[in-house]
């Protein structure tokens, strides 16, 4: 089996493509990359999520690194992805390995690699690792786990204290603790469990947490991805507990979903718009904004209003993280609900993003639905939706050709003004909105997304996108 890194790491079905032998193979490739780049002496941080066998896959990766003479800091238990990434910088390590399939279905597991800054490696570096992965697991050098621990090559550690201190340096937590919020937290059975309760303990704010145990089949949702319909069961608890806001983190804790005080989901484009407004208006910060092509044009409008540049990239933090570092971005993010922040690591952090939303509520004295009113007063109301469709892989070239040759004059009744091909095909429309058609980088799915200022046109825009792809 050939190992290929997609939008963010390598993912495969457990016991089919994702096996202990293949984890050892890809780790040997990463170890060779570390050695080839002269980074091996600095060591590697290894962590994992709560998926089936994840801790054992992480131990297998640690054994291979140790077998190559590379020191490993291995997390003591399941750890949010941003805490793993921060630990890379805290330990002065050369990189990180994270055993997680993030938001994928329960049958999958995954493997992410990070650089010395805790961010995703750019595509060119991932290609180097792929080329160094051996064809057979027999080529993977291994040192038995207990022997590696005894020899000091594997050190178990708790990443929570140092990561917590970083969060507390970025957010004034006390006003949130004393705000008296009723906060519903849904970690989607994943790594975000318990974190908001610990961070906000000791004040008047009350945290109600659901779906917090380890359960790798992810009941009540098709996958631990913080978008509808996966969030619907969790949001049904908002009215039961009288919550002021719902914060939802995905399976590995690096993405954030938000529900308002009425139990309505606030889509991830609007959340990114709120975060941009929060930094620019309420914190008076300035700096570049980095966004993928698949996220909101509200940020472009905010950029013009506040005089900051906005950079658009392909989809995935393998594009966002390097760009954030290059331009010293104030914030970076994508349509999936992943947001990263300056003075932290160039990595999605669902926990920190949630704290910023709470801080925004404190500073304005407004609930989530009222925060949207503030944002729309600046940039106008924007509406978003997407359709994910499976497809016969034998048709992929045909679908690509359909999209690449399409030259529609209107979409959803709106005039098409331009076509952008940074990642997939994005059709820009006269109202400043857009339709994007692209293949997923992690699953056999084609995604059709849109954003527009005309709420009633959203269904028609999406249907026209499906027709362009030849799926309708």
- The number of strands is 21
**Low-pLDDT residue spans:** none
Overall 3D form: globular
Strand order of the largest sheet: 1-5-4-2-3-6
Tell me about this structure.
It is built from 17 helices and 21 strands. It has helices spanning 20-36, 54-67, 81-91, 123-132, 145-150, 160-170, 173-177, 195-199, 232-235, 237-241, 268-282, 298-306, 317-327, 350-364, 368-379, 396-405, 458-469; strands at 10-13, 44-48, 72-75, 95-99, 108-114, 154-157, 182-186, 206-209, 245-249, 256-259, 265-266, 289-292, 310-313, 331-333, 339-341, 383-390, 410-411, 414-420, 425-429, 434-439, 445-452. The chain has 4 domains: 10-163, Alpha-D-Glucose-1,6-Bisphosphate, Chain A, domain 3; 179-266, Alpha-D-Glucose-1,6-Bisphosphate, subunit A, domain 3 (Alpha-D-Glucose-1,6-Bisphosphate, Chain A, domain 3, 3-Layer(aba) Sandwich), CATH 3.40.120; 268-379, 3-Layer(aba) Sandwich (Alpha-D-Glucose-1,6-Bisphosphate, Chain A, domain 3); 383-469, TATA-Binding Protein (2-Layer Sandwich), CATH 3.30.310. It is globular, with a radius of gyration of 22 Å. The longest helix is centred in the first third of the chain and has 17 residues, at 20-36. The mean pLDDT is 96. The protein is α/β, with parallel strands linked by helices and 472 residues long. Helix 1 packs across helix 4 (123-132), helix 11 runs parallel beside helix 12 and helix 11 (268-282) crosses helix 14 (350-364).
């Amino acid at each position: 089996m050939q190992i290929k890194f997609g939008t963010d790491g390598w993912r495969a079905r457990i016991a089919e493509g994702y096996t202990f032998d293949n984890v050892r193979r890809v780790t040997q490739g990463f170890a060779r990359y570390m050695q080839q780049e002269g980074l091996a002496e600095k060591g590697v941080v290894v962590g994992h999520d709560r998926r089936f066998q994840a801790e054992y896959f992480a131990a297998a990766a640690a054994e291979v690194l140790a077998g190559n003479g590379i020191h490993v800091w291995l997390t003591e238990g399941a750890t949010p992805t941003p805490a793993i990434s921060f630990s890379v910088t805290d330990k002065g390590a050369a990189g990180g390995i994270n055993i997680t399939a993030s938001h994928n279905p329960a049958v999958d597991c995954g493997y992410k690699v990070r650089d010395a800054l805790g961010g995703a490696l750019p595509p060119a570096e991932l290609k180097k690792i792929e080329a160094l992965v051996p064809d057979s697991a027999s080529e993977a050098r291994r040192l038995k786990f207990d022997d590696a621990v005894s020899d000091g090559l594997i050190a178990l550690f708790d990443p929570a204290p140092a990561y917590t201190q970083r969060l507390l340096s970025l957010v004034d937590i006390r006003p949130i603790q004393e705000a008296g919020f009723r906060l519903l937290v849904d970690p989607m059975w994943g790594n975000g469990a318990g974190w908001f309760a610990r961070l906000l303990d000791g004040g008047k704010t009350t945290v109600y947490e659901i779906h917090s145990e380890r359960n790798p089949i992810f009941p009540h949702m098709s996958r631990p991805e913080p978008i509808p319909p996966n969030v619907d069961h969790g949001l049904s608890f908002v009215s039961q507990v009288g919550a002021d806001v719902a914060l939802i983190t995905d399976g590995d804790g690096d993405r954030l979903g938000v529900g308002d005080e009425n139990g309505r989901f606030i889509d991830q484009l609007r959340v990114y718009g709120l975060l941009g407004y929060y930094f620019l208006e309420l914190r008076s910060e300035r700096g570049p904004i980095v966004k993928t092509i698949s996220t909101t044009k509200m940020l472009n409008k905010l950029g013009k209003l506040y005089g900051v540049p906005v950079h658009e990239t392909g989809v995935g933090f393998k594009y966002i993280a390097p760009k954030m570092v290059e331009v010293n971005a104030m914030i970076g993010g994508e349509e999936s609900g992943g947001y990263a922040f300056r003075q932290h690591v160039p990595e999605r952090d669902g926990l920190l993003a949630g704290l910023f939303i709470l801080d925004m509520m404190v500073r304005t004295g407004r609930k989530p639905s009222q925060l949207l009113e503030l944002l729309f007063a600046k940039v106008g109301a924007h509406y978003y939706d997407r359709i994910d469709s499976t497809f016969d892989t034998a048709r992929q070239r045909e679908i690509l050709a359909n999209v690449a040759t399409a030259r529609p004059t209107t979409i959803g009744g709106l005039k098409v003004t331009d076509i952008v091909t940074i990642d997939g095909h994005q059709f820009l429309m006269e109202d400043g909105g857009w339709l994007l058609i692209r293949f997923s980088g992690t699953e056999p799915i084609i995604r059709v997304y849109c954003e527009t200022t005309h709420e009633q046109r959203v269904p028609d825009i999406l249907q026209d996108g499906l027709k362009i792809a030849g799926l309708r």
